[in-house]
Design a protein that fits this description.
138 residues, alpha+beta, 2,3-Dihydroxybiphenyl 1,2-Dioxygenase, domain 1, 2 domains, four-stranded mixed sheet, 3 helices, Glyas_Fos-R_dOase_dom, lyase, methylmalonyl-CoA epimerase activity, metal ion binding, Lactoylglutathione lyase
């Protein structure tokens, strides 16, 4: 089997406001928007009666997929990086400090940008849905 990355998917509660954050604050161009439903989809995702709205964004070498499900799943604990199974989206940016400075005032950051012992400049932020996004120098 020859595999290659196609997309990274994030399930969100409000597609429109989350899409706005990724498109406007993080400069990811929208590639497509579409809806999927029907018995085959519900069976594939193992959610009775499921349908979903999708937005695909150009993340360079990989597509970023935002998906809003109906029905909405239940909330669990807020995502943290040290929880087994935790996920985050890593985005290369030209300048982490400048990228963080350009975020909306209400964007939550975990800390100011930091330079790790490997020399990489990073910052973690949360999108409007609480998903973790790592910004790192390209």
């Amino acid at each position: 089997m020859n595999s290659s990355a196609h997309h990274v998917g994030l399930t969100v509660r409000d597609l429109d406001s989350t899409l706005e954050f990724y498109r406007d604050a993080l400069d990811l161009p929208v590639v497509s928007r579409f809806e999927v439903g029907g018995e085959e989809f519900a069976t594939a995702v193992s959610v009775d009666g499921a349908s979903a709205r999708f937005a695909h964004l150009d993340g360079g070498d990989v597509r970023v997929e935002l998906v809003e499900y109906d029905p909405v799943g239940t909330d669990t604990d807020e995502p943290t990086l040290n929880r087994p199974g935790a996920t985050h989206l890593g985005l290369s940016v030209e300048d982490v400090d400048a990228a963080v400075a350009q975020l909306p005032a209400d964007a939550e950051t975990l800390s100011e940008p930091q330079t790790t012992e490997t020399g990489t400049r990073i910052a973690f932020v949360r999108d409007p849905e609480g998903n973790l996004v790592e910004l790192l120098d390209a």
